[in-house]
Structure formats: structure tokens, C-alpha cells
Design goal:
It is built from three helices and four strands. The chain has 113 residues and is α+β, with helices and mostly antiparallel strands. Strands 1-2 form a two-stranded antiparallel ribbon. A two-stranded antiparallel sheet has the order 3-4. Helix 1 (22-35) packs antiparallel against helix 2.
């Protein structure tokens, strides 16, 4: 796995058969190792790049849609908590299918907490 060189840094080699992008990642990891990075840094950078690719692919899929709608609901619920903390009344929370939402509230005139 590790190949030592005359420099104190080590070059990391990954098996290219793990993923379809394994060959490209191997070349990138070898290039990073030669230019600037230690083994731990290369592993971190490659893992982060794979994580970002997975997030980008999944963000536009329908797989995460329920989670995104739940996140919108939690966001609107935080607005409702702010309304309740200021002694006002929440009349409704709407969460739309396009990941948008709104919290409806009313404030009585002349009333303070």
C-alpha cells in the first residue's frame, strides 16, 4: 500500500477495481501524494470528493425528497417556536412539494408578553 520515496512523504496506491471511478481517483491520489499531501490527507481528500459526488447525485433524485420536506417542516417549526416565544398565535404551517414553506401567525393588537 505504501511506497516510500526519498522524500519524507509517502505515495498512496488504491486498487483501481473498487469503483468505476477508481482509476481516476487513483491517479488523483497519486498526484496529490506527489505534490503536497501525506497519506492521511490524501485519504481525507478522496473520501470528501466521493462524498460530494454522492451528495450531488442524490440531491436531484427523488430518494431524498421526503428528507428535504421534513427539513422544510423543521425550519417552519422553528419559526412557529419563535412566534410562540413572543406570545403570538400560530394559525398554520404550509409545506409545499417544491421544498418551500410558510408559517402563518397572528398578533393581537395592544397585547404584550
Amino acid at each position: 500500500w505504501l511506497k516510500s520515496s526519498s522524500r519524507p512523504r509517502h505515495r498512496l496506491r488504491f486498487p483501481a477495481c473498487i469503483f468505476a471511478v477508481g482509476a481516476a481517483m487513483t491517479r488523483s491520489a497519486d498526484l496529490l501524494a506527489e505534490l503536497c499531501c501525506t497519506e492521511t490527507q490524501v485519504v481525507l481528500l478522496v473520501d470528501y470528493a466521493m462524498y460530494m459526488m454522492a451528495c450531488f447525485i442524490l440531491w436531484y433524485s427523488r430518494v431524498l425528497n421526503p428528507l428535504k420536506l421534513f427539513t422544510v417542516f423543521l425550519h417552519e417549526l422553528s419559526h412557529a417556536c419563535a412566534v410562540w416565544l413572543t406570545c403570538n398565535k400560530v394559525t398554520g404551517i404550509d409545506v409545499n412539494a417544491n421544498q418551500g414553506g410558510v408559517t402563518h401567525w397572528t398578533a393581537p393588537r395592544g397585547r404584550r408578553c
